[in-house]
Amino acid sequence: MITGTCVTPISVEAGDEVTDDLGRFGRVSARFV
Fold first, then answer.
1. In the predicted model, is pLDDT for residue 30 greater than 80?
2. Helix (H) or strand (E) holding 30
């Protein structure tokens, strides 16, 4: 998963959930099925 040009990609698999806290902008979550 690539979230930007300055972030190291992470490996995800079915069943994983990733949450990013963006401070005052809130949170973004993704669940992989």
1. yes
2. strand 27-31
pTM score, two decimals?
Answer: 0.57
Contact (Cβ atoms closer than 8 angstroms) between residue 21 and residue 27 = yes
| Highest mean pLDDT of the ranges 1-5, 8-12, 25-29 | 25-29
Segment holding 24, helix H or strand E: none
Q: Domain total for the chain?
A: 1
Q: Is 25 helix (H, G, I), strand (E, B) or coil?
A: helix
3-state secondary structure of 11: coil
Give the three-class secondary structure for 4: coil
Q: The domain containing residue 30 runs over which residues?
A: 1-33
